[in-house]
Every structure is written in structure tokens, then in C-alpha cells.
Amino acid sequence: MGARRASKDTDRRIGRRALIVGGAAAAAGSAVLARDELGRLWWRVPGVEKPRKEGEVDYAGARWVAASDANWRRADRPDDYGIDMVVVHVTQGSFDSAVKAFQDPAHKAASHYIVRKDGHIAQMIRELDVAYHAGNRDYNERSVGIEHAGFVDRPQDFTDEMYEASARLTARICARYDIPVDREHIIGHVEVPGTDHTDPGPHWDWDRYMRLVRAARTTPA
Ligand SMILES: [Zn+2]
């Protein structure tokens, strides 16, 4: 954790990728490719990505709705970046407006999942990929982002169905990547270093949520 180690890790990864895409980088002349450009190029090399199917979801309870690919970066998690965190968000808007925003290439942000008040879950980005949801590169690379439709100052937006559906989703994510079910690893956007976001806000009931995640974690899927 921490910015120093993060940047060192990033440099090392970029070094490896720079070797892999040496041909493409050379073709681009001596121009310095932005790190994200390298990130987009390296996966084109055969054999470095897992098979994907259009419309496939990572969580059986979710419906696929693709986000604009401007709002995430292709990756091969957890092999290139380990996943050890879930970040809880609140959309500050309706479910439909969040889906629209994540489909908008100009939005420049999106999370993997959105949970609606009735417990419906949309997956918009594969967990393999890095979603731009935390406003912090290191945290984006190591986490799965879950949005909850509603407003931070409206506790009534956080329904029983929403808490339960979200907790089951988070429990499955924790099970798949061996993430400890605690507040070090299941955090709010507000807890991401450097953020100016306050979600999920003071009305999000963390005790209740963590209790539900723990309960779902010990229940067979
Ligand atoms: Zn957020």
C-alpha cells in the first residue's frame, strides 16, 4: 500500500510490457508513449489474455450492459494486477443515469457493477479489466468497484434489497480472490487516498453491510 510502492510496481510492470510491445513502440518512433497507451497495446500480443465472451458476466446474479471502453482499461486480472479490495460507491443519481454515464465515452469513469434499489445488478465492466472508479490508479488496478443507485443524503435510497444484493455480490468477489471480509479490504470511495468524493456517505450502514457480507460469505453460492 502507499504511493511509493505503487509507483515502483507500476514502473516494473511497464518495463515488462515495454519489452513485449517493443515492435509497436519502435514503429511509433522514439515518441514517448503514454503509460496508458502501452497498457492498451500490450494485450494485443497473443497468449497474454484469458478467453472472453461477449455478454459474459463474472457474477451469475448480474445482467451485462457494456460500459464505453473509454471508461476502463483492458487488463488480465488477477494475473497482471492482484485484486484485494472492493470499493463501495453511491451514484448521486438514478440507476438509469449511472448506466448512461458509464456508456458515455466522455464520462471518463465507470465501475464494474451498479446495484439498483430493487436488488437488480448490472455488470458493465469485466473484473479482468481495470475500471476507472476510484480516482486513484493503484486502487483502480487492485479493486472491484460497486455503485449503488441513490444519493448519499437520502438514507431511504439504501433499501434492504440493495444491501442484501450488494452484500452477496461482495461476498462472491471476496471468495473468488481470497479477499478478507473486513473494513481494510471493503472500503468506501471516501477512504481512497487523494479522493474528494464522500460516497457512500454517513447514511451507509457499514455494520449492517459487513454483517450481511460475512453471512453471505459462509453461505454456499
Ligand atoms: Zn464513488
Automatic annotation (TrEMBL):
<dbReference type="GO" id="GO:0008745">
    <property type="term" value="F:N-acetylmuramoyl-L-alanine amidase activity"/>
</dbReference>
<keyword id="KW-0961">Cell wall biogenesis/degradation</keyword>
<dbReference type="GO" id="GO:0071555">
    <property type="term" value="P:cell wall organization"/>
</dbReference>
<dbReference type="InterPro" id="IPR002502">
    <property type="entry name" value="Amidase_domain"/>
</dbReference>
<dbReference type="GO" id="GO:0009253">
    <property type="term" value="P:peptidoglycan catabolic process"/>
</dbReference>
<keyword id="KW-0378">Hydrolase</keyword>
<dbReference type="InterPro" id="IPR051206">
    <property type="entry name" value="NAMLAA_amidase_2"/>
</dbReference>
<feature type="domain" description="N-acetylmuramoyl-L-alanine amidase">
    <location>
        <begin position="72"/>
        <end position="201"/>
    </location>
</feature>
<dbReference type="InterPro" id="IPR036505">
    <property type="entry name" value="Amidase/PGRP_sf"/>
</dbReference>
<protein>
    <recommendedName>
        <fullName>N-acetylmuramoyl-L-alanine amidase</fullName>
        <ecNumber>3.5.1.28</ecNumber>
    </recommendedName>
</protein>
<dbReference type="GO" id="GO:0009254">
    <property type="term" value="P:peptidoglycan turnover"/>
</dbReference>
<dbReference type="Pfam" id="PF01510">
    <property type="entry name" value="Amidase_2"/>
</dbReference>
